[in-house]
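sanity check this chain:
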Amino acid sequence: MSEPVLYGAAYSVYVRTARLVLAEKGVTYRLEEVDVFAPGGAPAEHWARHPFGRIPAFEHDGFRLYETGAITRYVDEAFAGPPLQPADARQRARMNQAISVLDNYAYRCLVWDIFVERVRAPANGRTPDEARIAAALPLARTCLAALPDIMGEAPFLAGAAVSLADLHAAPIFVYLAMAPEGRELLAREAPLAAWWERVKARPSLAETRSPLEA
């Protein structure tokens, strides 16, 4: 088998999710940098990999995929290594529920509305949009309360072992914790804060470190 290729930017939350899954499975791969925010957008050849011009995209032995969830499930099922999807139907449903919450509600408010405005805006010489941050906080609180409710008494989001849900969440929480509002939100949810301490200590997080991390 040839070495898989992941197309995307190292700073991207969703590219990092795919990288975390590859790392947890012990898969050697090549990251080919694609910056969709560069002047002019994604390069022309990338549109052949992803018809919406987004990241990540993936290729393995001539088999091409886009969309993070499709990539991570393929990697989990196609390669040896620890399984990252629970065998139990209810735990697997919880995994999928957590991923859906992260995609549909958490990502935009935690990353774009809080992290980007509070952390990246000043780094780029722009004044943070305080109204946007304030407007994001109620939904952020709801998201951070929903995840431990899904987790229950388990150490990870979908049970006793790390799953795709934890690896989907981790890059979001790396950025959230860089903002003071994010740290305050986490401090209010003790089970989630304990989960985050477990997840961020995993070697895969250090191996896939974002260039935007402080």
